[in-house]
Design a protein that fits this description.
CATH topology of the largest domain: Metallo-beta-lactamase, Chain A
CATH superfamily of the largest domain: Ribonuclease Z/Hydroxyacylglutathione hydrolase-like
Strand content: 15-25%
Number of strands: 9
Structural class: alpha/beta
Order of helices and strands: HHEHEEEEEHEHEHE
Distance between the termini: 30 Å
Number of helices: 6
Oligomer: single chain
Shape: globular
Length: 196
């Protein structure tokens, strides 16, 4: 989705690709929600107020709910999830059948449980603990992430998108109380092997 914390690294990449002394040999491809081009063109405008036509360096393609896309040897299936702006979860499958599902930013919704069904690894946002005063339908709690993982029958639950003001240990404990499989909160730079 196109909230700033998820996409504003891209204008810097536009500068790098456009002005690097060794130009790229072909345009890159960006997949995103329906308003991706407009939002990024406004964010990367050199003068403000104008739109940066970055089609010289990137082609923008729209995700279509439920329509798989082949990227290299991977199959990526996007599904709309619940968030204030158009947001997608992703099911990424290797030819071997190994599957990673990423929730994206979302509240509880049936499409996420369907997307995660039977995944080897479920990378799920859990921004809150399950307190009554948290914003509803915006992000998941550790409890909700654990419940979705259990309902979907995933192999492993990896928690992400835990902000500094939320206690990681509490989010992990909530998820473990709901889901019997392995639960872990990821950190930047960590790698996970999902090969079968």
């Amino acid at each position: 989705h196109l909230h700033a914390d998820h996409c504003l690294d891209l204008p810097g990449l536009f500068v790098w690709r456009r002005y690097h002394p060794t130009p790229a040999t072909e345009r890159g491809i960006i997949y995103g929600p329906s308003d991706t081009w407009t939002r990024l063109a406004a964010a990367s405008s050199p003068l403000g107020g104008d739109l940066d036509d970055f089609t010289d360096i990137f082609e923008v393609r729209q995700w279509v709910d439920g329509e798989p896309v082949r990227l290299g040897g991977l199959t990526v299936q996007p599904r709309l999830v619940m968030h204030p702006t158009e947001s997608f979860g992703m099911r990424i499958a290797e030819p071997s059948g190994a599957t990673l599902v990423y929730s994206g930013d979302t509240g509880v919704c049936e499409s996420l449980a369907e997307l995660a069904r039977g995944a080897d690894v479920f990378l799920c946002e859990a921004s809150w603990t399950d307190s009554p005063d948290r914003p509803k339908h915006l992000h998941l709690s550790g409890t909700e992430a654990g419940r979705i993982a259990k309902k979907a029958g995933v192999g492993e639950l990896l928690l992400t998108h835990i902000p500094p003001w939320t206690c990681r240990e509490d989010v992990i404990a909530e998820a473990k109380a709901e889901f019997d499989g392995p639960v872990h909160a990821v950190v930047p730079g960590e790698t996970i092997d999902i090969a079968r």
